[in-house]
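Objective 1.3, modelling of assemblies. Example input:
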Amino acid sequence: MLPPSLQKHDLFAAWTFASPALLGLLGFVLLPFVLAVILSFSNLRLGSPLPTEFMGFTQYQRILTDTAFLHALKNNTVFALLVVPLQTGLAMLLALLINQPLRGMVVFRTLFFMPVVFPLSLVAVVWVLLFAPGPQGSLNSVLELITLGAWQPRDFLHDTRWALPAITLTSIWQGVGFQMVILLAALQAIPLELYEAARVDGANKRQQLWFVTLPQLRNALIFVVLVTTILAFRLFDQVQIMTQGGPQHATTTVMYEAVNAAFASQQVAKGAAMTVVFFTIVLSLTLLQRYVIKHEKVIE
Amino acid sequence: MRHRRFIISLLVYSALLGMALGYLLPVWMMVAGSLKPDAQVLLQAGSLRGFLPSEISLQNYHDVLARVPFGRYLFNSAFITLSIVLCGLLVNSLAGYALARLQWPGRDKVLLAVIALMIIPLEAIAVPLFYEVTLLGWRNTYLVQIVPFIANAFSIYLFYTFFLGLPKELEEAARIDGAGMWRIFFAIVVPNAKPVFATVAILTFLTQWGSFLWPLMVTHSEAVRPLPLGIAAFYTLPPLQWGDIFAFGVMMVLPVLLIFLVFQRWFVRGVATTGVKG
Amino acid sequence: MAKVVFNKVSKRFDAETIALRDFSLSIEDGEFMVLVGPSGCGKSTALRLLAGLEAVSAGEILIDDQVINQTTPQQRNIAMVFQNYALYPHMTVRANLEFPLRMRHTPAHEIAAKVSHIAEILDLSELLERKPKQLSGGQRQRVAMGRALVRDPSVFLLDEPLSNLDARLRAQIRADIAQIQQRLNKTTLYVTHDQVEAMTLGDRVAVMHAGELQQVGTPEALYQDPQNIFVAKFIGSPGMNIIASTLISQGDNELAVRIGNQTIPLSRLGQQTDENISPYLNKPIWIGVRPEALSPMQLPNRVGMKIKIRATEFLGHESLVYFQIAQTTESQANNVLIARLTESLPQPDKADATLFVDPAAIYLFNQTGRIIHRAKQPAAS
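Predicted structure (tokens):
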């Protein structure tokens, strides 16, 4: 609590400082979102001669029985469950390798970070070619080479079982560098004395990793997992460019369905309902994660 | 002992090298493909020759420059992205500071709201936003591609977390020395907040440079469209001219890559500082 | 020049945390006042309230008879040296020193003059173009002080300025601070947890504990005349030995204290003091004996106390003997006391020994810790 004169002063300063950003968020994020929520209770359909009416939860009922949407929910979950551990694990591995006191590590750091710099749409385009079907497809031929001919060429992007993994691979490729850099910095921040103490206490390399490295990385790991999870649910660009949700909804995502409904089929209200569902899911996840983490932080 | 260390370093190097090679395959493919005539790109995609062009030609680059006003696209992307970044740094840092350091009624609720807003992706609000900007008459301008993105919940949150971690003493000393709020912020806090400014600048730049959906929706003339839309021009009519697409891709990424290579250390330090603080 | 008054000031941070309770203190113009106490005693809170960095929950703070509760730090003409110096890291030493003057819109030539003057006083003239990270701890300290002094404040605040320095440097800078304060004669409030600093620097010292003022007075007064057990134990290196005992009377109106199985006679204490003491007859009380008052020599006027020695530290000019009172109960036996002896013990290797003390040097405290009877001061030698 501040004395009254300070309070007034702070209040004025606070509003001056915060208002441009808050107004921007209000007008360009909150307002449209509220509009979307309102729309989700209607049956707005662009280009339709029928008048818009209030429909209550009908839209929600519709989408929750829509096979495409249900597939999308499933896909998002599977995708998140695949991407988060795989990408984090790979980033962790790379960070551990690059953290060695060897020369030229900066070069490797740069190399692995580079794909992050590429716009997602470009990445998608390139990987479309890599996933090209038939024995001429790059990935197919590489796999054939590695497995010494045992590999059957597949059309990844049009195969219901391989399409989502293919997109997962693309996302991981693009995202690992980012996580790696964060984990690397956290690794380098661990004081050497901890390792020395562990060695004196008799810990071998593996035990040092488990008892010193990982606990010290906790904060960085949490941050990385949180951000990756949120981004995993926003999956859109790759789907749009590489598979357009197919084949047979194998790669459709909530966002993709939402945008499609709103733009492609002009069913604005339906699209709005989907985004509201999406938002609710991700918000709950985030709150859950924050709750779990806060809980642990107190003990610390 | 030295023996063992040598073997370990050998293993580490080979592991990294192996992964790096596999990792950069797509990049190499893009570069190589951009230097080959179109027909070969697809044909050779599967073979080793896909990665080693037998005839190097800049034909694709000529094609791109001929078909598409690349220079204009480049300028648009640069102008739009830089505007968003610079205005964003100012606006979001002030808000982050107000949340972290100033006391005012409703502050905690606003903070929660900011965190909640971080989740909303552009796609979720694209349609209502589209109507909003149409009402404002901003269609097909630079304005419509810049203004809605200046205020950013994630940037505010990064600034907020960082400012919370700054030791209060500098600001207290400045208050005792007689400095007012604005001066404290610009003369004392900002110069000591370089890592977070770098991080936010870089993250914003990366996100906005590749922005695709929104410009697609709200613009229709080449005069204001950014680079990612240019690539779409090649992507419509089959047969896909992969060579051209790759050439475009290389040219699109090159400026960002160069900036990245030059500012690398800032980049990495910036990204890492916020992540480590968590 | 300024006189500072804290008038029943309280500070509460939330429902459970009361940092400062009914704190009243006046600091005279030009006086060097030290606030001392263990961590959490409220001394830093009091300082920050005076600086205006926190708001008062109750009570008033006055500078020169003006209530300043509602003013901002910028408006109060005070200066502060922070524990971690809080030097602006991105500015040179010169810019750091100039900053407060620029904030007050001092004309440029005056700024230059004042800065070089202060730099000279504090021996910073050669360091003016450096940045803080290029300075040693002691140099940064001086810059912090320079920044505080450059604009001639009415009140000078220091928040544990020596705690980040190594021991050697601390003594040196302690002397410098004392010198500067005397020379400039500024009203100063100095906060520390180190009672040695307090005793050597302060004109007066205020001892604090758990948010409350325990006692304020000159260093001599605090040493010789502690008002309660906390002050008695806190002041002095080491502090006073406090021993649980029962007050009894031994025939002939002679008073004595029983400690365990030992009885230590106190000499007749005079009519006046009897009134203070008689309510406590046959009740448990605490007695206090300074480590310096104990001796292994049996001189006239001294009474003996059997002890068991636990450890001895030889320091050259004196020894510290760690002991427990012999023939006491289990709980008493755990109380380790200290004696400072300039003469050596007759049988240094034996654990059993006797220490002697002049009963006039014994302090009596009641069960709540308040002083009942202070020791007579030794006659001037």
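The first helix of chain A runs from residue 4 to 40.
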